[in-house]
């Protein structure tokens, strides 16, 4: 079994960028587990199926292929919203968590990012990071990213969405978003991505030495 780095945190905290940088630095495989929830939601939407039928959503979740996940196609805001609705369903979570756990065992190591990696998917991971930032900072970053790509966005609407998504992810009964007890907290509200990367690297290097 390879070395596992578990990274959790709320939407738009910077964990995706950080996870990709870490995976590249150490030559590890990376899985953005949010994409597995997004792919399930998109398959339901594309097939015109309801988002509130747990048996159907669970079956679709079992058919998700990790190799076919495409960030560009799955990044749409509406898919993220739908994903957080089906992510409350235990049958969906069980199917996707099994696939994520199989991925996490790859050699020489893996970086998984999501909401429940350190608490549920890989509770024995030797390095756990909880990446967060204030809702205002996260909404501002998401807003600037959309504007930077030439899109249109309202800060107030994005801020309201960030709060709604937090409430859903932190308030659900099955695998709510929360830091694992042994996670290192990285608050990126006033930290550059480079500083967050350096901090993460020091935790990872220390754990690799012990391994
Ligand atoms: O991270 P991302 O925005 O792509 O995730 C979409 C949704 O999928 C989240 O809002 C959350 O509800 C769900 N999710 C989850 N557990 C994970 C990853 C994502 O419940 N490990």
Topology:
Layout: E1 3-8, H1 15-26, E2 29-32, H2 34-46, H3 54-62, H4 71-74, H5 77-86, H6 90-104, E3 109-114, H7 117-121, E4 127-132, H8 135-148, H9 155-171, E5 184-187, H10 193-210
Helix pairs in contact: 1-10, 2-5, 3-6, 8-9
The chain binds cytidine-5'-monophosphate (C5P).
Relevant terms:
single chain, 211 residues, alpha/beta, Rossmann fold, 2 domains, 10 helices, 12% strand, binds cytidine-5'-monophosphate
3D architecture notes:
- The protein is of the alpha/beta class.
- It has two domains: 1-28 and 109-206, P-loop containing nucleotide triphosphate hydrolases (Rossmann fold, 3-Layer(aba) Sandwich); 32-107, no CATH class.
- The chain has helices spanning 15-26, 34-46, 54-62, 71-74, 77-86, 90-104, 117-121, 135-148, 155-171, 193-210, and strands at residues 3-8, 29-32, 109-114, 127-132, 184-187.
- Strands 2-3-1-4-5 form a five-stranded parallel beta sheet, sandwiched between helices.
- The longest helix has 18 residues, at 193-210.
- The protein starts with a strand and ends with a helix.
- It binds cytidine-5'-monophosphate.
- Residues 11, 33-34, 37-38, 80, 83-84, 87, 114-116, 165, 169 line the site of cytidine-5'-monophosphate.
